Amino acid sequence: MDVTCEVLGGGSHELELDADATYGDVLEAVGLSTQEASVLVDDSPVPEDRPVETDSVRVLRLIKGG
pLDDT tens-digit profile of 44-65? Predict the structure, then answer.
């Protein structure tokens, strides 16, 4: 499965994923973890364990502070 992944502020990536890939696998493919980023589909966050059902996603890096 081919997926275009736009990392906001970090460029675009063309990913080739397994047919049973999850949105967590998308994050892993671009070098991010579920603790530091969220995947957005149609501008809404999706659970990391949900199977990928689209050919285009956006990744938003999470900001933390103290």
Answer: 999 999 999 999 999 999 976 6
Pairing of strands 11-16, 2-7: antiparallel
Phi and psi, residue 34, nearest 5°: -70, -15
- Single-letter amino acid, residue 65: G
44-45 and 56-61 as β-strands: parallel, antiparallel, unpaired? unpaired
Q: Are 58 and 38 in contact (CB under 8 A)?
A: no
Digit-coded pLDDT (tens) for 5-21:
999 999 999 999 999 99
Residue for token pair 């689209």 = 54
Query: 59 and 33 in contact (C-beta within 8 Å)?
Result: no
Query: What's the predicted TM-score (pTM) here?
Result: 0.90
